[in-house]
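Quarterly update from the structural biology core.
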Amino acid sequence: MPDYKYQGTSRSGSSVSGVMTAANKTELAGILKRQQITATKMTEKGKEFNIPTFGGGVSSKELAIFTRQFSVMIDAGLPLVQCLEILASQQENKIFQKVLTGTRAQVEGGATLSTAMRSSPKVFDSLYVNMVEAGETGGILDTILQRLSAYIEKNVKLQRAVKSALVYPVGVVTVAGGVITLLLWKVVPIFATLFAGLGVDLPLPTRIVIAMSHFIGSIFGFMVLVAIVGGIFGLKIWYGTPQGRMVLDTILLKLPVLGILMRKIAVARFTRTLGTLIASGVPILEGLDITARTAGNAVVERALLKVRKSLEEGKSLTEPLKESEVFPGMVTQMIAVGEQTGAMDAMLQKIADFYEEEVDSAVKDLLTALEPIMIVFLGLVVGGVVVSMYLPLFSLIGKLSNSH
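Predicted structure, tokenized:
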């Protein structure tokens, strides 16, 4: 049997890695699960440097459509293998088609659906697999798949809201930066040569713009550009480390306007995920573990792992939530009511609905406020450069008029 290198997270949330012998990745995933380790990467030893496949992956939208169709087929009474075979044959995404064909082969070979899906962690994450496993155990796979498709669709909507809030200002600033750089690099030097030939006294704004043009055209300007690009890549690499992710996510949550929006998104995602897991029969401790890993923010993840640890010690869910100071008071109060009434899943779904509406409203307000600000900013900067180039010409025309 081959040896596999694996990486994953333990029940406490810490990273673990090692080498283990198993017949295949499915068997390895089962062994690790019994040891309360959630595998994030499994590679056969000696094949670590396989050429990666580009172009694709499986989008959340494709996964949501597949899950919705799968639930309808299961509800109609079609056998599991036949469902997977039909869905694989209809799938346009070749990567997803290959994954579904492999999953069908494993199920046909006697594996459970959740075990077969666990061997494709890049497509079916721990949340998906655990919910499918709960559906298989409880005999309500069609209901679980319906909940999963609804959850994925809402998650896609939430991600779209985040992109809407970030893409517009970043896009405008990038375009403004590109236009200004082009003006300073190519257009301003032509004017500078003209002014030098005419011997015109240059006003202060024009001298500043020409100095900036010289700087951008020199080796120092190129070095600054390289430094900016290097800084962005360095920041991205640092964000990949636990410490960097924690620092940047903390700063993000404390930003004046964007921080409030990100906090609302984190609350909506946490409550939707945990509510869906609990409603599907996944134990709350395992649900908190999955929710922490899919939180999308290191600060929220740390808070949820503390909540899980406190729950293991016999405390209530609301106490550690209050202590974390990450979640608003209304959220902890509603969760406390849900805990006391035994309707935790329904209460979490209501909180998620409320905060998703809040996110939609906040994004619309943010974009409405940013649009005129960005237009004014772009007009002032680009207009300022253009006007500063024409100021000496106005002065020259005035002198010529006086002389005549």
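Residues 160-377 form a domain with the Receptor-associated Protein fold (CATH 1.20.81.30).
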